[in-house]
Design goal:
The chain is mainly α. It has 15 helices and no strands. Helix 11 runs antiparallel to helix 15. It starts with 7 loop residues before the first helix and ends in a 29-residue tail after the last helix. Keywords: Membrane, Transmembrane, Transmembrane helix.
C-alpha cells in the first residue's frame, strides 16, 4: 500500500512547519514543568496535594490521546493540531495568571487534555511525512522538540533569575507563540490527503480494526523509555546532591546535559537509521542508555554521575521517535493511513503511563532500598527493548536502510 504523491515543495514546507510545531511544544512543556515550584507557591498548593495536580496532567493527556484516535477518523490530524496547539499555549498563560487554586486546576486540566491531542496529532503527521519521504526523518522532529525544551528551560531559568512573576514570564512568550502556531499550521501536510479531497466522511467505517496485542511490544518500549526519561528529569538533581555529594549548583547540571545530548542524539539519529536501519539504532540506543544507568548507579563522584546522565541522553534519544515510526509503519502497511493514526494515538498513551510510573517507582525504591539500586530498575527495563528490537523492522517496505528510493522526487 502506498501513499498518494505530494509535490516535493509541499512536503518540504510541511516538514519545516511540523518541526516548528514540535519546537513550540517542547518550549511550552519545559516552561510548565521547570516552574512547578513557582506554581505551587503562587497558588498555595500543599506538598500533599501537589502530586495530585502533577498526576492529573498526564492522566488527562492520555484521555486527550484516546479522544484524538476517534476524532481523526473524521477530521484531519493537521486540523486537530492547528486547533489544539494555540489552546495549549493559552492554557500555559492561564496557569501563570489566574487568581485561585481552583482556576489553576482548570487551566492545568485544559493543558493536559489538549496536550494529549497535540502529542498524538503531531506524531501522526510526523509518521505520515516520513512515509511520504521514504526515509527516516522522525528523529529530526523530536530533535526540534528537544531544542524547544532547552529554550523553554532557559527562559524559565531567566525568569527565576530575574524574579519574574509567572504571568510576566508566560505572557510575552505565549503572545509570540500563538500567532506562530496559527502561521505554521497553514503548511501542515496530512499524509497526502490533499490528493483525496477534504471530505473524510465514511472513511471510518473502512478502517480495519487494529489488534492492540500486536502493538504491545512497542507500547512496552514506549513506557520503559519514558520511565527512564522521567527518572532523569525528576531524580538527577537529588541523586547528584544527596548520593554523590555535589553542590546544589552542580546538581542542576545533569538534566541540562541530558537535554543537550538528547538533542544531539536525535540530530544524528536519522542518519544512523538510514545507514544501519531502525533495528540496529534502537538496539544501540538501548545498550547505551542501560550503560548510562549503570554508570550512574556505580558512580563514585558527581562528575562520573554526570557522565552517566550524558550517556543516557544519547541512548534514550532514539527510542521514542523510532517507536512512533514503527507503530505507524506497521499499521499503515496492513490497514492504511487511518489505522496508522490509530496506532500512534494508542502508543502515545504509554508515553504518559511511563511518565506516571517512573518518578514514584524510583522514589519508592530509593526509600526502601537505595537510590543507587533504584537506578538499576530503569536500566533493566530499557534493556527489555533488546527483546523487542525486531518490532522496529519494516514489515513490507523498508525505510532508512538505503535500499528504497523516496516516493516523492525532489524532496530535501
Amino acid at each position: 500500500m502506498t501513499a498518494p504523491r505530494v509535490p516535493g515543495a509541499q512536503l518540504r514546507h510541511g516538514r519545516v512547519s511540523l518541526a516548528l510545531s514540535f519546537f513550540i511544544q517542547g518550549a511550552v512543556f519545559a516552561l510548565l514543568v521547570t516552574r512547578i515550584p513557582a506554581i505551587q507557591d503562587r497558588y498555595g498548593i500543599s506538598d500533599g496535594l501537589l502530586p495530585v495536580f502533577l498526576a492529573a496532567v498526564p492522566v488527562l493527556a492520555g484521555v486527550g490521546s484516546v479522544v484524538t484516535e476517534q476524532l481523526v477518523k473524521r477530521v484531519r490530524p493537521g486540523r486537530v493540531l492547528r486547533a489544539v496547539q494555540p489552546v495549549v499555549c493559552l492554557a500555559l498563560a492561564a496557569v501563570g495568571s489566574v487568581g485561585s487554586m481552583a482556576q489553576a486546576a482548570v487551566a492545568l486540566a485544559v493543558f493536559g487534555l489538549t496536550v494529549g491531542a497535540l502529542d498524538a496529532s503531531m506524531n501522526m503527521l510526523g509518521v505520515s511525512l516520513q512515509r511520504a519521504y521514504g526515509r527516516s526523518i522522525m528523529l529530526g522532529f523530536h530533535a526540534a522538540y528537544s531544542l524547544g525544551g532547552i529554550v523553554g528551560a532557559s527562559l524559565a531559568w531567566a525568569g527565576a533569575h530575574w524574579k519574574l512573576s509567572l504571568a510576566l514570564l508566560y505572557g510575552p512568550v505565549v503572545a509570540a507563540l500563538v500567532p506562530l502556531t496559527l502561521l505554521v499550521g497553514r503548511w501542515f501536510v496530512d499524509r497526502g490527503r490533499e490528493a483525496q479531497g477534504d471530505s473524510e466522511e465514511g472513511t471510518a467505517g473502512a478502517v480495519v480494526p487494529l489488534a492492540m496485542r500486536l502493538l504491545v511490544p512497542l507500547c512496552l518500549v514506549m513506557a520503559f523509555a519514558y520511565i527512564g526519561d522521567s527518572t532523569v528529569s525528576n531524580w538527577s538533581a537529588k541523586y547528584l546532591q544527596d548520593v554523590l555529594g555535589s553542590s546544589e549548583q552542580l546538581a542542576t547540571v545533569p538534566y541540562n546535559v541530558y537535554m543537550v545530548t538528547t538533542l544531539l542524539g536525535r540530530v544524528v539519529g536519522d542518519l544512523g537509521v538510514r545507514r544501519f536501519g531502525a533495528v540496529a539504532v534502537v538496539r544501540a540506543g538501548a545498550v547505551v542508555a542501560a550503560g548510562g544507568f549503570a554508570v550512574v548507579a556505580a558512580a563514585p563522584v558527581a562528575w562520573a554521575g554526570m557522565a552517566g546522565f550524558t550517556l543516557l541522553g544519547f541512548g534514550l534519544s532514539v527510542l521514542v521517535p523510532q517507536t512512533f515510526a514503527a507503530a505507524g509503519r506497521y499499521a499503515f502497511e496492513r490497514h492504511g493511513p487511518e489505522a496508522a493514526d490509530m496506532a500512534v494515538a494508542r502508543l502515545n498513551i504509554f508515553n504518559y503511563v511511563g511518565f506516571l510510573i517512573g518518578s514514584p517507582l524510583v522514589g519508592a525504591l530509593g526509600d526502601v532500598w537505595s537510590y543507587r539500586g533504584a537506578m538499576l530498575v530503569p536500566m533493566a527495563l530499557v534493556l527489555v527493548t533488546l527483546v523487542y528490537a525486531r518490532s522496529f523492522g519494516a514489515p513490507a517496505a523498508r525505510y532508512g536502510d538505503g535500499h528504497e528510493r523516496p516516493r516523492t522526487a525532489d524532496v530535501g
